[in-house]
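assembly run, all chains below
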Amino acid sequence: MRFILVTVRKELKRRFNDPVGLISAIMIPFVIGFLMASVMGGGGASIKAQLLVTDLDDSFISQGILSALGQDQIADMILLEKVTLDEGQRRINEGDGSGHLVIPEGFGKAWLDGEEVALHLTVNPAQNISPRLIREMLESLLDLGDFVHKVFGEELTIISQNLESNELIGISTADFSSNITDKVSGIADLIFPPVLEAEDVTPQPEGVSVGVALLMFPGILVMAAFFAANGQSANFWTEKEKGTLSRWIASPNAFSAFWVAQWFTAMLLTVIVAAPIMLAGFVYFGISFEKYFTSLAWLMMTGPILFAVLSLIQVLAPSKKAGGMISTLVMFPLLMAGGSFFPTETMPKFIATIARYTPNGRVIEPLKGYLIGEYGAWGVFSELWGILAVTLLLVLLTGRLSARKALA
Amino acid sequence: MIEVRDLQKSYGDLVAVNRISFAIGAGTVFGLLGPNGAGKSTTISCLSGLLRPTAGSITIGGFDMARDAVKAKASLGIVPQELAIYEDLSAQDNLAYWGAAYGLKGTRLKQRVAHVLNRIGLTDRANHLPKHYSGGMKRRLNFGCGLVHEPRTLLLDEPTVGVDPQSRERLFDLVREEKAKGTCVLYTTHYMEEAEKLCDELAIIDRGKIIAAGTLNELRAEFGGNDIIRLSGSFDLPRVEQAVAELQADVLSLSTEFLMIAIKDGARNLPAILQGISATGADIHDTRLSEPNLESLFLKLTGKELRA
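ok done. output:
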């Protein structure tokens, strides 16, 4: 184990003696990310959720919900489209749309009567953020409805009883209006707190604004890890050509230790190249720094899966030149399909599905979810073991395949 | 320290090393001599654990390379024919790394690195990257990487290839120092002068087989006291061959421009030789008389030049 650590230190020294390579691994993803985010609308552009709505109730309550979802601020995030039940089910099954909301028949009457009500929402599992937006909006609306019911329960019952007659029975219009006014006055202090001081301020968003640039950010980090991994995976051929690999094999150390050391080096290189990019991103996007080290740890442990994939390619290649060419041929499509150039949210469904099964996609998506608040830290790391297991298997396979080739 | 028995290494039908055996004791420099492709490097690769022998056994420092490879390797120091150093790591870091590879650490490692840097004459360039070194300096560093852990057995595979005379002499000194310390040294080369200068015992290998072995004097005795006469000029081959036979000498090498013969009491017989050869119509430009050396021995044994 000691010699593995000594080897890792030696590898890092070699990389630091070639600062151009190291700085390139940092700068290239940084520049590509900046350009791509600019082309795609930068940080201001946001993702819109497409909500298909089937209103089977068609009451003034259901229309009120749709009207609320169509208000300016919400409409910036959710695009409503009224559809029939069949069309809505068909389209959401085809992945067309972020969610399908069905307001069942009798919903409005039941709500007015204070009975248990349910809205049926089907979300698109291929999307991460948009369904979450829709769910949160609906939950807010339902909370509001609950609150209204608690305050104006009697009045709502009266409305319910007189829905069909269009007249108020058992109470005069004046009394009805007076009751509502009294209740609003009674809770006015709670819902309309007195203004103590007027100050002209620009309100700051409490959370992270989810724009295209932020959605690209994890992909950029993984791109940096990819570049670091690519350089390290080519080290097998470099050491073979330099004769140092033979010197290693002639030493009393196990050959497998060589690959373990390369793996550990890839981990640290990932941290070294990703840390400055991550720092810049956290500042730019206003992401809480509580997530910084967790995100870095995630990248450190999962990013080397890319090293493992590229190392296997290098070892299977007949020469260093062929290894470099094949690695490049594999790396760039993976970067594109895996979500480093374009976030999966902007991809066609079938490519987004492929992206989630690429090695870099497996690293990017949980990190993205964590950075935008979809997952907590434990949620992210629940996927760690699978990635580590695959990385270990690939490293072992590479070590086995390379043992004979090392001396060929 | 090194014992090789019936070592064979084959690649399909090609037998690179064919059942060779030798033993080298402590404080001995053993030269393995042969032309390129004779099997020297294959033998070294088998000894260093880089290649698995097809047959035979190798024992290093009392440990069998097949059964106890880690212990056998731990007592070995290797200086490969090709440079095996990190050109993007300083000389000091190279030495420290390869020292650590053999278990050195802490103060002991620092001491050894400083000592070896001094011995290979790189103390003042210790923190420079080898990619800025001359070829000779890189060779010396390559040598130092094999010595840093103080191995009891040293395998030197043509360590002076492409080395300037100054660095070569320094490397010779290092080999002598190692010998004086009691290190067992296996030295492969195709330079006769090196072998004659450094080696206590020699084996001549050709086409994977050891064709002669012993001390330098024992090998010289193969000539039965003959001297070597080299003539340069222009020669009529059939007539020269007949004349040499009449003079009771052995032809070692003959071409239209060069003749090498072995003959008893060369100094006394030289006038007769010159007269006999000239009588064939040969035009002799240059004549040299010498004691038999390894090169002439190799020529006698194999019928070809060692550096061909």
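The two ends of chain A are 27 Å apart (CA to CA).

The beta strands of chain A are 49-55, 78-82, 99-103, 120-123.

not gonna interpret more than that til we talk
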